[in-house]
From TrEMBL:
<dbReference type="InterPro" id="IPR016163">
    <property type="entry name" value="Ald_DH_C"/>
</dbReference>
<keyword id="KW-0560">Oxidoreductase</keyword>
<dbReference type="InterPro" id="IPR012394">
    <property type="entry name" value="Aldehyde_DH_NAD(P)"/>
</dbReference>
<dbReference type="GO" id="GO:0006081">
    <property type="term" value="P:aldehyde metabolic process"/>
</dbReference>
<dbReference type="InterPro" id="IPR010102">
    <property type="entry name" value="Succ_semiAld_DH"/>
</dbReference>
<dbReference type="InterPro" id="IPR015590">
    <property type="entry name" value="Aldehyde_DH_dom"/>
</dbReference>
<feature type="active site">
    <location>
        <position position="246"/>
    </location>
</feature>
<dbReference type="InterPro" id="IPR050740">
    <property type="entry name" value="Aldehyde_DH_Superfamily"/>
</dbReference>
<dbReference type="GO" id="GO:0009450">
    <property type="term" value="P:gamma-aminobutyric acid catabolic process"/>
</dbReference>
<comment type="similarity">
    <text>Belongs to the aldehyde dehydrogenase family.</text>
</comment>
<dbReference type="InterPro" id="IPR016161">
    <property type="entry name" value="Ald_DH/histidinol_DH"/>
</dbReference>
<dbReference type="InterPro" id="IPR016162">
    <property type="entry name" value="Ald_DH_N"/>
</dbReference>
<feature type="domain" description="Aldehyde dehydrogenase">
    <location>
        <begin position="12"/>
        <end position="470"/>
    </location>
</feature>
<dbReference type="Pfam" id="PF00171">
    <property type="entry name" value="Aldedh"/>
</dbReference>
<protein>
    <recommendedName>
        <fullName>Aldehyde dehydrogenase</fullName>
    </recommendedName>
</protein>
<feature type="active site">
    <location>
        <position position="280"/>
    </location>
</feature>
<dbReference type="GO" id="GO:0004777">
    <property type="term" value="F:succinate-semialdehyde dehydrogenase (NAD+) activity"/>
</dbReference>
Length: 475
């Protein structure tokens, strides 16, 4: 079930050292993958660079047909892929199936988008000149991805890269390598030629160092923490690589006095507790108008208390385990810090010894103030801190007071208020009465220290293209 070899140049390779993979719901070892290093990292660039010439010369139709063949295999094996994902990442099986569909929709979207890489002609100032603008593939792309979306964060990069005519070397998270390797297996079965996609599992630093230093790698695309994003940004400078960075977030959710409270509660549940609160766009702090703060908090706590926590394969489980012990500790530190500073615990608040997995109760805190760690540090767990505000201006100022700028949420039934607040928030993604804004058609990405560039939609292929113009002088 679990692929346990690297995928380089169409070959499945072993290494002497292996890295164990744990099921976070049981802490059992479910398999292991090669601990690839410098040698494998260089081999992967050799393969991608060799494959680039043929792959970039294929027509957009040819590349599209191969991407759609890959899409069909993923569709056929959706449940198998979802089972692997729940085993290695922990999310509920239904969420895992949803992620496979979401990931696969990126492949379908970019299989078509590759056919719309248009150029243009520009009127020249001389009658004997013509100016022709072309977009061409960047070249070899290095991709490094996180554990929280083991499929979607990969296809959101691989699909546009291949559609644009690039080839790619990919390092998935050491926590969740199997989904990536299984996707690679299906890409091979789909007929995507050797060297176009290469997957190197292993410790991140040695692999990234080789890729950053290799000037044949012309672009780095990274999804993960802002801390690591900054390390990679510095490393990419030496060879001036193009960069796409999808980094951390700290989403505010604003509920005004004009909100539909039931809609706001459901929006808070979906934006906060998806993937046990382990998404980059999860609500991290909730600001509620003081006139409805108690009513909102009590309804939210009532819903949260009914969320079932457990192994992702159990029926009706909404909250799976966190990815590891450090993640549980971080959430507990945020809860303890807030309570010590005066927050009230309205629901949850404890680790759960279920099957000895990394479980924690979904938690609601009220009477929260901005000096509490959870109000400025990414929690990345099922903790909903609620703070009240007096004026809309105050809410906007507090919501924008962060180095992050990925997602924000606004709940109000007043259209003028909705537009005013949405336009004043410094975030790349605004959920307006919508707790689940992510969509393959839309330009996903953030302001400030949440990243550079956009993934998804027609914006998402631009970052894999170079623009050149040809100045033609006629006789
Ligand atoms: N903006 C987005 O689209 C998005 C999506 C998912 C996750 N994230 C963010 O990712 C974080 C959680 O994911 P994570 O824990 O996997 O993040 P992480 O930064 O710890 O790891 C991400 C990837 O980087 C690798 N890595 C770690 N240290 C590295 C180094 N020194 N050099 C090179 N690579 C290194 C890891 O092996 C992994 O593959 C959160 O901050 C979350 O907000 C952002
Ligand atoms: O964790 C960040 C992902 O981008 C989540 S999603 O795209 O909103 O599903």
């Amino acid at each position: 079930m679990f692929p346990n070899k690297l995928y380089i140049n169409g070959e499945w390779l072993d290494t002497q050292e292996m890295i164990q993979v744990i099921n976070p719901a049981t802490k059992n070892v479910i398999g292991s993958t090669p601990n690839g290093g410098e040698i494998e990292a260089k081999l992967s660039v050799d393969a991608a660079y060799t494959a680039l010439k043929e792959w970039s010369k294929k027509t957009a139709d040819e590349r599209s047909r191969l991407l759609l063949a890959w899409h069909r295999l993923i569709e056929e094996h959706r449940d198998e892929l979802a089972e692997i994902m729940t085993m290695e990442q922990g999310k509920p099986f239904a969420e895992a199936k949803g992620e496979i569909d979401y990931a696969n929709n990126y492949i379908a979207w970019f299989a078509e988008e590759g056919k719309r890489i248009y150029g243009e002609t520009i009127p020249a100032s001389s009658p004997t000149k013509r100016i022709i603008v072309k977009r061409q593939p960047v070249g070899v792309v290095a991709a490094i991805t996180p554990w929280n979306f083991p499929a979607a964060m990969i296809t959101r990069k691989v699909a546009p890269a291949l559609a644009a005519g690039c080839t790619i070397v990919l390092k998935p998270s050491e926590e969740t390598p199997f989904t990536a390797l299984k996707l690679a297996e299906f890409s091979q079965q789909a007929g995507i030629p050797k060297g176009v996609i290469n997957v190197v599992t292993g410790a991140p630093e040695p692999i990234a160092t080789v890729w950053l230093r290799d000037d044949r790698v012309r672009k780095l695309t990274f999804t993960g923490s802002t801390r690591v994003g900054k390390i990679l940004m510095r490393g990419a400078a030496d060879t001036v690589k193009k960069l796409s960075l999808e980094l951390g977030g700290h989403a505010p959710l604003i509920v005004t006095a004009n909100a539909n409270i039931d809609k706001a509660v459901e929006g808070a549940i979906s934006s906060k507790f998806r993937n046990a609160g382990q998404t980059c766009v999860c609500t991290n702090r909730i600001y509620v108008d003081e006139s409805i703060a108690d009513e909102f908090s009590n309804r939210l706590a009532e819903r949260v208390a009914n969320l079932k926590v457990g192994n992702g394969f159990e029926e009706n489980v909404s909250i799976g385990p966190l990815i590891n012990d450090r993640a549980v500790q971080k959430v507990m530190e945020h809860i303890e810090d807030a309570v010590k500073k005066g927050a009230n615990l309205l629901a949850g608040g404890n680790p759960l010894e279920k099957e000895s997995g990394y479980f924690i109760e979904p938690t609601v805190l009220t009477n929260v103030t901005d000096d509490m760690t959870c109000m400025y540090e990414e929690t990345f767990g099922p903790l909903a801190p609620v703070s009240s505000f007096k004026t809309i201006e105050e809410a906007i100022e507090r919501a924008n007071n962060t180095p992050y700028g990925l997602a924000a949420y606004v709940f109000t039934e007043n259209i003028n208020e909705a537009v005013d607040i949405s336009e004043a928030l410094d975030y790349g993604i605004i959920g307006l009465n919508d707790g689940s804004p992510s969509a393959v058609q839309a330009p996903f990405g953030g302001f400030k220290e949440s990243g550079l560039g956009r993934e998804g939609g027609h914006f998402g292929i631009e970052d894999y293209l170079e623009v050149k113009y040809i100045s033609l002088r006629l006789n």
